[in-house]
Specification:
The chain has 246 residues and is mainly alpha-helical. Among the domains are: 50-174, Orthogonal Bundle (Peroxidase, domain 2), CATH 1.10.420.10; 216-246. The protein is built from eight helices and five strands; from the N terminus they run αααββαβββαααα. The protein has helices at residues 10-24, 58-67, 72-79, 108-115, 145-152, 154-165, 167-182, 230-245, and strands spanning 86-87, 96-97, 119-122, 128-134, 139-143. A three-stranded antiparallel sheet has the order 3-4-5. A hairpin with a 5-residue loop joins β3 and β4. α4 packs across α6 and α5 crosses α6. The protein starts with 9 loop residues before the first helix and ends with a helix. Mean pLDDT is 86; it is low at 217-230.
Length: 246
């Protein structure tokens, strides 16, 4: 898509891809507007350490999301995105899928969170998560500590129970909060045009097309021309984790 339409920003392309993918996997319609610019300077780059730490609890979730303007109900609704995909040990350290069918958007995440018995498990990496093993299907599902926190916190639990019982309500609330998430930091006029632009370049700045070659393994190179684009980020993440331990 980027190769065919190089004018579009990654910020727009990825947020649009998100709402389209959710719909294609059986989820709700989510309103979307374009106009986001790509990275244009240090003034727009947030500091590290502002994303949720999945090993933490309810206080941490509120600290992270309240700062961005999300209330308890919205935190629980956003967590329903865990009905899709899985964790990868070589990325986050956690490993496994939350639900049986991680390519279908549903409220199963909430239903399993309440109905199954979740046991703490320490992985080979030393990271702890919660698992449920079904002997009949020989399948193991997992939950993060932050997922279990939603069940164990009385206020969060109220919304977990609501969404477990009412899929339509979950879809309605998720659509609203996902749109809110994709619009964070954006100010629009009455016509929907973005009015807050970069102080130096301004306008709609589209970053160059990224490599078509995934940059995960170290032995891999982007289009075989140089070091993997993931390597600098991996090094920065390791430095940040080391500082967090101090």
């Amino acid at each position: 898509m980027k190769e065919k339409h190089p004018w579009i920003t990654y910020a727009d392309l990825w947020t649009l891809a998100g709402v389209v993918a959710i719909k294609e996997m059986g989820g709700p319609d989510i309103p979307w507007k374009g106009g986001r610019t790509d990275y244009v300077g240090e003034t727009k780059l947030p500091p590290r350490g502002r994303l949720p730490d999945a090993a933490q609890g309810s206080d941490h979730l509120r600290f992270i999301f309240n700062r961005m303007g999300f209330n308890d109900q919205e935190i629980v609704a956003l967590s329903g995105a865990h009905s899709l995909g899985r964790c990868h040990a070589d990325r986050s350290g956690f490993d496994g899928a939350w639900v049986n069918n991680p390519t279908r958007f549903s409220n199963q995440y909430y239903r399993l969170l309440l109905s199954l018995r979740w046991t703490k498990k320490k992985l080979a990496s030393g990271i702890e998560q919660y698992t449920n093993y079904d002997e009949d299907s020989e399948a193991e599902l997992m939950m993060l500590p932050t997922d279990i926190a939603l069940r164990d916190d009385k206020i969060f639990l109220k919304y977990v129970d609501l969404y477990a019982r009412d899929k339509e309500r979950f879809f309605e609330d998720f659509s609203k909060v996902f749109e809110k998430l994709s619009e964070l930091g954006i100010v629009r006029d009455a016509e929907g045009n973005i009015t807050n632009v970069d102080s130096e370049l301004g306008g709609y700045i589209s970053a160059p097309k990224k490599s078509a070659t995934p940059g995960a393994p170290k032995k891999n190179t982007d289009d075989k021309t140089g070091p993997s684009e993931a390597e600098p980020l991996q090094k920065e993440n390791r430095k940040f984790k080391e500082k967090s331990k101090l």
